[in-house]
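Input.
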Amino acid sequence: MFEDLWLIPLGFVAGVLGSIIGLGGGIIIVPTLTFLGFPPTLAASSSLFAAFSNATAATISYAKQKRIEYSLGLKLGLLSIPGTILGAFISGDITTSHFKILFGIVLIASSAYIFLNKKIKSNSHNFKAQVTVLAVTASFFAGIISSLFGIGGGIIFVPLMVVGIGLSMRLAAPTSQLILLFAAGSGMIVHTILGHADFYQAFLLVIGAFGGGLIGARLSLEIKERSLRILVTIVMVAAAVKLFIDSLEVPF
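Output.
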């Protein structure tokens, strides 16, 4: 029983980083659990419990700071739910090598845009329509990512909001936490229904992730925009490298 208590500090560290950059603590939790021999489906399920807890704590703090774009967050969050359901169902038996490679490329390209502070700006009707289509597609894709890998849809939503919509990182990261309430919550429920969850281990991660979410949201006030972009870039590139490495270990 006590041998699993290390999951609390793991959840805490993941929660602090996840709430600051808005990407979800799964970026840390899933690779760690997988490295330690946890089955991928169990790692993804447990990570989603932590992500939901982290998102709850962070959203409460960011709401008090008035840094959440509620309309955008609610729309993207609801759009992600169908993808999370699909991701949970296919998580147990899909071969993901090609998917991980392509996703890693998307991460690197998105991190380059964020790091260079490039924003796509246009007032044309066609552009706005394209952004709408992109948002719907990306939300569904992010939902699949969230449930399939348990790493949270923030790695799609943050670049989408910064690059495509033009939000600053100080608004994108908090808004991403609101979105993750829907993405992680729905994925967590479906994984539980499918019998993937270990509630004791998930509970330990939840404790740490909630505390990390509260502290991370406060620390984010002290971090400059440029520093936040660099931090996001580093995390996304690291996640891409992890995905590339994982793809070599899974048969095509």
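The two ends are 38 Å apart (CA to CA).
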